[in-house]
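Late entry, written up from scratch paper. The run itself happened at the end of the previous shift, but nothing got recorded in the book at the time, so transcribing now.
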Amino acid sequence: MLLAADIGNTNISLALFKGSKISKIRDIPLKEYTQSKLFKYIGKESLDTALICSVVPSMAKRLANDLKKISGISPRLIGKDISVPLKNLYQNPKQLGQDRLVNAYAASKIYSAPVIVVSCGTALTIDAVSKNREFLGGFILPGLRSSLSSLNADTALLPKLKLKPASGLIGRNTQTGILNGVIAGSAGSIDSLIEKILLKISKHAKVIGTGGDIYLIKRFSRYIIKVNKELTLKGIFLVYKNTLENA
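Output as recorded:
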């Protein structure tokens, strides 16, 4: 059994794979993670291997140590112990977050290339994969929650709001004005960038969405045709599968 762990800036997403299928999945907020919660999640399952994809090095080390204590397995870290089999055309490949590369690889395998991946989490990222399965690069924008926080922090009168859908489109009060401004405004920016990528790589490229807040964006987007919230976890499995096939 494979344990796949995706460590983001807000959550740790865990998935247990039996064969190629996810048998158990859980998100743990980074601030609430404990070894006991990991132990409870794994339960009596017998792990064969574990892979970690992380953008938080300190948490990756902590999770790896906890997994070693609980299961006796030393996890492998994507980008360090195991590579994503996708040609990376980033100017400095080491600067690229492995989650973006894993998402791009998963999208190209599941949906074929060329493909565009929109990930809506702590940050918004839009990444492009060419028809030759090359990671071309992409865009990084503030996430929806970051945008909401900055409006409150940088102004005297705008309130602090929790992210949630708002009714209608044109805000008739401050709350809906802010929420729809942030969500629809971000969706508009994303669609504009997607349009430019499509002109560059292929007008037939599919656009895949993922991340915890993606459905808020999809409502306003003309281009996101498919949402796969487990894209990163499935990508971790596909990286593992490729390693086995090429061992």
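The chain has two domains: 2-81, 99-235.
(Scratch paper discarded after transcription.)
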